[in-house]
Structure formats: C-alpha cells, structure tokens
C-alpha cells in the first residue's frame, strides 16, 4: 500500500485485506509490525471522501484495537480517533460508517481512560447518543451505541 499511496483502488483493497485478516492475535501482531496502523490511518486521511476506505479503515482499526491497550494507544497517538470521529461527522447518513465508526470508538475506549477522555472531548458521546434517533431501524447499531455510551459515561 505504501508504494501506491495515491491509488484509491489499491488503498481500498488494502484496507479491506487488512480488515479481513485482522481477526486473530497472531495476524494482528504481524499487521501491526508491518506498520499497518500507520498505513490505514494515512489512507483514511488521504481519501477522506472515499466512504469505502473509511468503512474498511474503521473495520481494520476496530479489529486491531480489541482488547489490546498498546494498539489502542498507538491508534490514538497516530490521530486515529480524530479521524474516526471526523468521518462519522462527515458522513452522518451512511449507516455503515456510523456502525463501524461507533464500533471502533467502543473498542478504543475499553479499559483506556486517555482514549475515553479524547473521544468525549471530540464530541463523540453526543454523536453516538444520536445514532438511535438517526437510524431507528438499525438494531445492531443501537446495541453497539448503547455499549459505547456505557463505557464513555
């Protein structure tokens, strides 16, 4: 992905591949060692209007951040939380981005006070709180939003 950082199709496919392969600890460790967190966040910044990259980027960061304080912190330090909140605000009508963005913020806030405080300071608490109203028929999103709000309180 680094060699083709300006190619939207390669970045989208790359984020998708990283997302699909980040479901177990061994794979996630290898992905992180390959500097994929940096690559994902850069792709999300470079192609901020490309909704598919944003969804796949959030999915990848969600998987990488699950139950790993070190990776959660690294994502924060690389401004990944800001990117996720920014894209949730940019695409308020896109239920997939809202779902995967909310899920990413949920796992990044779990047992990580600094991340939790940053997420709240960026206004994401209100953003998440409004998801149930904005998407009244999306039950899975409601569950995820409620779990996120419990952690962020």
The topology string of helices and strands comes to: HHHHHHHHHHH
Radius of gyration: 14 Å
- The total of helices stands at 11
Report the sheet-strand fraction. under 5%
The name of the CATH superfamily reads Leucine-rich Repeat Variant
Give the overall silhouette: globular
Instruction: Return residue spans where pLDDT drops below 50 for at least 5 consecutive residues.
Output: none
* Number of structural domains: 1
Distance between the termini: 38 Å
User: Would you tell me the structural class of the helices and strands?
Assistant: mainly alpha
Q: Tally of extended strands? A: 0
Helix content: over 70%
Q: Average the pLDDT over all residues and give the rounded result.
A: 93
The major beta sheet can be summarized as: none
CATH topology call:
Leucine-rich Repeat Variant
CATH C-level label: Mainly Alpha
Protein name: Protein aardvark
Keywords: Repeat
Write a brief structural summary.
The chain contains eleven helices and no strands. It is mainly α.
Question: Could you explain how this protein is built, in words?
Answer:
The chain has 153 residues and is mainly alpha-helical. The protein has a single domain, classed as Leucine-rich Repeat Variant. 76% of the residues lie in helices and 0% in strands. The chain contains 11 helices and no strands. The longest helix has 15 residues, at 51-65. The model has no long low-confidence stretch (mean pLDDT 93).
């Amino acid at each position: 992905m680094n060699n083709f950082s300006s190619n939207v199709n390669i970045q989208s496919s790359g984020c998708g591949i990283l997302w699909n392969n980040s479901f177990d600890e061994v794979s996630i460790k290898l992905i992180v060692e390959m500097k994929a967190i940096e690559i994902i966040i850069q792709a999300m910044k470079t192609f901020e209007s490309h909704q598919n990259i944003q969804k796949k980027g959030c999915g990848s960061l969600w998987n990488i951040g699950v139950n790993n304080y070190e990776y959660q912190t690294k994502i924060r330090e690389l401004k990944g939380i800001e990117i996720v909140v920014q894209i949730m605000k940019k695409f308020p009508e896109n239920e997939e981005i809202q779902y995967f963005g909310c899920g990413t913020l949920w796992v990044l806030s779990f047992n990580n006070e600094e991340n939790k405080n940053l997420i709240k300071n960026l206004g994401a608490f209100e953003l998440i709180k409004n998801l149930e109203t904005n998407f009244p028929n999306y039950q899975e999103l409601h569950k995820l939003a409620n779990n996120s709000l419990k952690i962020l309180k």
